Amino acid sequence: MNVDYLIQRLIGRATCRLQQNAVLGSRARIRNIRGDSDKITVGQHSRILGELLTFAHGGEISLGEWCYVGEGSRIWSAASIIIGNRVLISHSANVFDNLTHPLGAAARHQQIRQIFSHGHPRDISLDENPVRICDDAWIGAGAMVLRGVTVGEGGVVAAGAVVTKDVPAFSVVAGNPAVLIKELPADARQS
Fold first, then answer.
1. What is the pLDDT of residue 2?
2. Could you tell me if 176 and 162 are in contact, meaning their C-beta atoms sit under 8 angstroms apart?
3. Residues 114, 117: Cα–Cα separation, whole Å
4. Of 140, 141, 145, whose CA–CA distance to 156 is shortest?
5. For residue 14, what pLDDT is reported?
6. Is 8 exposed, middle or buried (0-12, 13-18, 19+ CB in 10 A)?
7. pLDDT digits (tens, 9 = 90+) for 166-178
8. Which residues of the chain have pLDDT under 70?
9. What pLDDT is recorded for position 7?
10. What is the C-alpha separation between 129 and 149, in angstroms, rounded?
11. How far apart are the C-alpha atoms of 115 and 37, rounded to whole Å?
């Protein structure tokens, strides 16, 4: 990517911290509503084609080295999402550490009115609960990893799965809600 184009694209707003050889694809979106570039970090050699977003009231996203976030994928943080090294997040996957909107109708309507008229509120609770995706995990296309979940080392989330509970290390989960379908053999565990 042309460095002058990237600099021009980023002038005047908080974005993220890119480590050496990390790449934002031409359609990647960094929506750092929190306004602190240190709250989204992308490790060396990682490639982001999807969207990374922090909310105005909080959020932090940390991606390790050699990670991939596919097109159409969204990682939205109001608390903390920590992604280890060599993690693959396929196309159109979603990772959320929050509800994104209040559950109550009146509070939800108030939040939407605030967003439409003044931007994201800085004082709101979205029932945040940190997410952790450990080294060598793979999140399949169209999967959803929801608040409070840890995907263990080498864990695989099948395409389209909705993950509401922790994924054990070196295992495969699938379905809605995701359930354990397979433990990976020892030869599949080497990095």
1. 46
2. yes
3. 5
4. 140
5. 61
6. exposed
7. 999 999 999 999 9
8. 1-14, 189-191
9. 45
10. 8
11. 21
Sign of CA dihedral 49, 129, 79, 33: positive
Hey, what are 160's tokens? Answer: 């389209």
Residue spans of the domains in the chain: they are 3-101+128-182
CB 101 within 8 A of CB 126: yes
Which residues touch 75 (CB under 8 Å, ≥6 apart)? 50, 51, 52, 53, 61, 69, 81, 83, 89, 94, 95
Query: Which CATH number, 1.20.1420.30, 3.30.420.40, 1.10.287.1260, 2.160.10.10, labels domain 3-101+128-182?
Result: 2.160.10.10
Catalytic-labelled residue, pool 45, 91, 101, 120: 120
Q: What is the pTM of this model?
A: 0.90
Residue 191: the pLDDT is: 55
110: left (phi over 0), alpha (psi -120 to 50) or beta: alpha
Residue-wise DSSP of 76-144: EESS-EEE-TT-EE-TT-EEESS-SS-SSHHHHHHHHHHHHHH-S-SS-------EEE-TT-EE-TT-E
120 is catalytic: yes
Contact 41, 14 (CB under 8 A): no
